[in-house]
Amino acid sequence: MIDFDLWARNRLEFETIDDIDASMNGLQLGNPEAEVETMAFAVDACMDSFRQAAARGAQALFVHHGLFWGPAVPLTGVMGERVRFLMENQISLYACHLPLDRHGELGNNARIAGVLGLEDIEPFGDYKGRKIGFKGRLAEPSDLETLIIKLFGAWESSINALRFGPAEISSIAVISGGGPREVSQAIAEGMDLYITGDRSHEIYHQCREAGINVLFAGHYLTEIYGVKAMAETVASELGIETVFLDIPTGY
Length: 251
Hints:
Blueprint: H1 2-11, E1 26-29, E2 38-44, H2 47-55, E3 60-65, H3 77-88, E4 92-95, H4 98-102, H5 108-116, E5 119-127, E6 130-142, H6 144-152, E7 160-163, E8 169-174, H7 183-188, E9 193-196, H8 204-210, E10 213-216, H9 219-222, H10 224-238, E11 241-244
Parallel strand pairs: 2-3, 2-11, 3-4, 8-9, 9-10
Antiparallel strand pairs: 1-4, 5-6, 6-8, 7-10
Helix pairs in contact: 5-10
């Protein structure tokens, strides 16, 4: 795990964002000296992902949302059971939060921009002085339904939209996960469409009055992109067997 940690910190540029990230990025639990032949990848650290990782014979689990955020918490109840399971099954837990949102190649937002075919891509979305998303333009205008099919294959129950902007969309800004308030920055920059994960009542009238389309595509659905990209990259660059664990939440 030491070699993987060094590789991941360099590859995902932890040092550019770690100081403003509440997540404990890196190895959260496990033996740093452990050898890893199989690594599982999931969006969330939860008993479902732990059990599936164990069933697949993984020695490590890479997640976007780890167990530890900010202040220390007691290892009792649900948290205690999670830690106990990982330790008993000798599974190391590795977490990567904001570095995997903002990375220009492997990140959630960059991958979404790539699937959409955006051109003239630039960093977007200030968060504590750093840009964590991306924006760009489509080569040809498109309707919202076509864009959703490109990203997800179909409408999912977790996807919602505010259709207050142009029917033909040319400019798009993206911040995966919990970025509804950053719509104000998309409005300020004249975007036709803003894509994020979580929906929010409080921005409804702001978006309607500003005349912008917003796609609330679900926290989970917008954050599988970076996790999948990491699984592919770890396999190709490190030669570790990888498996993606799809555990949707509907949110």
